[in-house]
Amino acid sequence: MNKRTMPTLFLFVIVLMASLLMAPSAKGSGILELNDSKNEYDLNPYTSVLEDKENRLVIYDLLHPDVAARFTDAGSQTINYGYSAYSHWAEFKVKNTSLKKDWLLEIAFPTLDSVDAYVLDGTNTVLQKHVGDDNAFDNREVKNRNLVLNLEIERGETLDVYLHFRTEGAAALPLKIIHPVHFAQKEQVSYLLLGANYGIIIILTIYNAFMAFFFRAKAYLYFALHSASGLIMFATLNGVAFEFLWSDAIWWNNRAIGFFMCVSHIMALLFIRNFLPPRSLSDRWKLFCNMFIVVEIFNILLMCVDVVLGLKLMLVKYLFFELLMIIPGVRALQANFRPARYYLCGWGIFAMTGIITTFTESGVIPMNSLTTFSAQIGSTLETLIVSWGLANQIKLIRKEKDRAVEQMNENRKLADSDFLTGLYNRRYIMNRFSSRMSEQMVFLILDIDHFKRINDTYGHLAGDNVLQQIASVLRQCFRHGDVIGRFGGEEFIVLMPDTFLDQARHRAEELLSAVCSVPIHIGDTHITCTVSIGITEWKSDSSDDFHAALRRADEALYEAKRLGRNRICVSSS
């Protein structure tokens, strides 16, 4: 990872957190005036709220002066009661001074269970509308992932709107009035951004799943499942899942967020157990990990029985989960496990942005687009960075594999080679013959003439130099497919596959000439050497084995020496 990458990503999170401290100051409620200069209005500064702790108030109760006096200004921040068990009322007045009479009331929080809208005109005639995920998606007045209602206001008309909202999750009410054309344009951009976000996660999930099956590595599979679970959880939070995946499954939609969050946590714990080195995972951490997986499974079962209690349990264990994920990453980094840098960077960003979103939905910090989607942005960055780390781990594995193969080849070469000349040794020559490298081949054995005299006159180091020079000449005179080896002492052997005797004799004559013409330097002295060569032929249809063919070639070699050396003798098969 580039040294500047990690500080840049953390700078993004710092800017995100700093934006939380820059919320605008509160403003008193009043009447919102719609004009021709704007197409979108934030309703929060014009809204009053009332908490109905007894859940008994109805719309006509609100018209009573005593009850109306209990409403308080919401201020300019988004209405957010966190995870509240009570129902709530919101009230605002809107006056239309524009030529446009068709408007939309948007509640940009798709997970609200129920919102009842009561629209009162000047004669206190009540028009009631309902929206929320406690009703099938097809029953919505405006088919959109957010909760949207039509609001028709004639020019010069003033409407008094009451909203009664209740939910088993976070009770937030981000309110806007938007012109339909502007809303359609904005939603195109919104769906495009969500589609891009989902597309990145889907591509990386498929990539990691493919790598899991290709490398047979559980870490990639668990991370792919973690990413996929997180994707569906955020799609549910965005209202996209209810719109496109299970538009009639009301019971399931209320529990899908908690279910996929728990599954995502389980997959993350299994991922870290298979991704980080075992030395960074203490026995105590493994025990806590197993206990936490059991708690996550219990949380899923609890969600089926009591959604509110299940959501509260998720909030309680969230910080413990983040701590459980960070500790082994730090230990792995201390153990110089390089991919741990990617893991800590990715998970650290996701943890901070997740905490921001959790506190936002709990009503601890102000709600805006950045804080609401911070966990989703962090999840995308986490998937990108950790996938990058997994790819880096593949690179490291390949490097280690290449080094191991190179070392294995080197060891094999050392085991099959003569340490002095670098040619093959006797064992390798015999193994190559046993592998039946050819149906017909020629054995060629040569011996350096008067080699003992060279050792006695110039010393054994000079003798070693002669052996190396002869080995070099042999490499130059024979073909690439010929197997050249030192058979012992000053004796060399060449296996020539798919070769006839006359071809081998021609090569041997070239070798005699080459050896004689190469001066060998021994200090200030230059000497020349000669060799004697014995040749025999072997065919696969004969009864000869390696030793029989070697014996014939050896007899031909000794015949060459007997006849005066520096010559070639051929033994018939």
Automatic annotation (TrEMBL):
A Pfam short name: GGDEF
Transmembrane segments: 189-207, 219-237, 257-276, 288-309, 315-333, 340-360
SUPFAM superfamilies: Nucleotide cyclase
Keyword Cell inner membrane part of the UniProt annotation: no
Keywords attached to this entry: Membrane, Transmembrane, Transmembrane helix
Domain GGDEF: 439-573
PANTHER family attached to this UniProt entry: DIGUANYLATE CYCLASE DGCM-RELATED, REGULATORY COMPONENTS OF SENSORY TRANSDUCTION SYSTEM
Protein name in UniProt: Sensor domain-containing diguanylate cyclase
Native species: Paenibacillus aestuarii
